[in-house]
């Protein structure tokens, strides 16, 4: 640096160190000289020192320390979010109208007509491509599978067992003398047997030979299969033809059992599957005599089943069970199950696999009638006593 002159006329000379630190020394007579600081002292702010060792006040240090903070404050104020002035409702409505349609730029919702056209064209092409891809996949899938039988089948599940009447839960509880208590059961059985009417079976199906499978595999896949008859009249006292109430009005109820339809299933491996019913919990005497109609077996001539597209008029065989000697006023747990080769009837997880369990409780008709008579007599006595009290109170008044 070129030498300069101070106010006293002395020359001033600055000498910079390699680290850029400079110290100013005042020489005698008011002149100054510069000295190079050590590297450890380069981090400290510069000081002006008199030659005689008297330090000046550290005003320059304070200024050097506060100068960066003041600069940061200025930067913060520059980027600080300024409050947005509140807009009136009229201004907001005007902004909304301008956003929906800007007459100056001819824009709708911030976009021109060309921009909207390109967007709509893009999405139309996108969804058309997705629809075409989905349609192509569905076409290939439907073309590769058969509507008459499964394309892949690892194993055939054993059949389940269903019953009628089928209501919410499997609890059959009624009083023989109370029509309302068992009417829902008879109505459910009527609906179950509607397709088994004799006239419909004679018109649609044929009478088949017993104790042998009715195989029709030689026909084409699309050919309709012939179905065997199963007439309602074969169910005897549980058919609803002799007794329209299926024994419920006499305390001898009937239930109907049917196996699930399984495509191509041959039950029993050549021998008919039979049905047995008994008490699951409690004494066996509580259920009394059990009758089966027409037999306690599912005949082989109704199998195999070829599906609803080919076996259009197929009627599943039914086994009717009549509890003729059930103990009255007893809560009985009854289980009916299938028995035969390949049948599973003791699954702990599926209660309908090969068996069905329900509760049966039949109220005594005479007992219910006696209780009803006692209630009517007691109600009449109460009314008579009330009338006498009213008459006596009227006489006193």
UniProtKB/TrEMBL annotation:
Function: This is the non-catalytic component of the active enzyme, which catalyzes the hydrolysis of ATP coupled with the exchange of Na(+) and K(+) ions across the plasma membrane.
Gene Ontology CC entries for this record: nuclear inner membrane; sodium:potassium-exchanging ATPase complex
Taxonomy, superkingdom: Eukaryota
Organism placement in taxonomy: Eukaryota, Metazoa, Chordata, Craniata, Vertebrata
InterPro entries the UniProt entry points to: Na/K_ATPase_sub_beta, Na/K_ATPase_sub_beta_sf
Protein name as catalogued: Sodium/potassium-transporting ATPase subunit beta
Record GO biological process: potassium ion transport; regulation of DNA-templated transcription; sodium ion transport
Record NCBIfam families: Na_K_ATPase_bet
Cell compartment(s), UniProt: Membrane
Chain spans, region Disordered: 369-397
Bilayer-spanning residue ranges: 118-145
Coiled-coil zones: none
Organism: Gambusia affinis
């Amino acid at each position: 640096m070129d030498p300069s002159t101070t106010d006293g006329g002395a020359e001033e000379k600055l000498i910079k160190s390699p680290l850029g630190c400079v110290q100013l020394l005042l020489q005698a007579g008011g002149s100054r000289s510069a000295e190079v600081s050590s590297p450890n002292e380069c981090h400290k702010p510069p000081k002006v020192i008199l030659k005689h060792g008297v330090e000046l006040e550290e005003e320059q240090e304070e200024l050097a320390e506060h100068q960066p903070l003041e600069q940061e404050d200025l930067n913060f104020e520059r980027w600080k979010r300024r409050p947005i002035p509140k807009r009136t409702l009229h201004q907001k409505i005007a902004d909304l109208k301008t956003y929906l349609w800007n007459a100056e730029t001819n824009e709708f919702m911030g976009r021109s007509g060309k921009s909207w056209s390109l967007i709509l064209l893009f999405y139309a092409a996108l969804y058309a491509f997705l629809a075409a891809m989905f349609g192509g996949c569905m076409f290939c899938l439907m073309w590769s599978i058969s509507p008459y039988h499964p394309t892949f089948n690892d194993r055939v599940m054993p059949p389940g067992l269903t019953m009628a009447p089928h209501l919410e839960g499997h609890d059959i509880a009624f009083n023989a003398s109370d029509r309302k208590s068992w009417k829902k059961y008879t109505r459910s059985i009527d609906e179950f047997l509607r397709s088994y009417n004799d006239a419909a079976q004679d018109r649609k199906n044929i009478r088949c030979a017993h104790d042998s499978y009715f195989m029709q595999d030689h026909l084409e896949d699309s050919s309709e299969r012939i179905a065997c008859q199963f007439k309602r009249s074969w169910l005897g006292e549980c058919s609803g033809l002799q007794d329209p109430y299926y024994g419920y009005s006499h305390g001898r109820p009937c239930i109907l059992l049917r196996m699930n339809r399984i495509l191509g299933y041959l039950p029993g491996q050549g021998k008919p599957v039979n049905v047995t019913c008994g008490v699951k919990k409690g004494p066996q005497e509580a259920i009394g005599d059990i009758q089966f109609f027409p037999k306690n077996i599912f005949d082989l001539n109704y199998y195999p089943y070829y599906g609803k597209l080919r076996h259009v008029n197929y009627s599943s065989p039914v086994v009717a069970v009549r509890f003729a000697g059930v103990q009255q006023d007893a809560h009985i747990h009854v289980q009916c199950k299938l028995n035969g080769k390949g049948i599973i009837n003791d699954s702990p997880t599926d209660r309908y696999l090969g068996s069905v369990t329900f509760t049966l409780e039949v109220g005594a008709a005479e007992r219910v009638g006696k209780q009803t008579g006692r209630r009517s007599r007691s109600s009449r006595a109460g009314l008579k006593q009330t009338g006498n009290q009213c008459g006596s109170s009227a006489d006193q008044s």
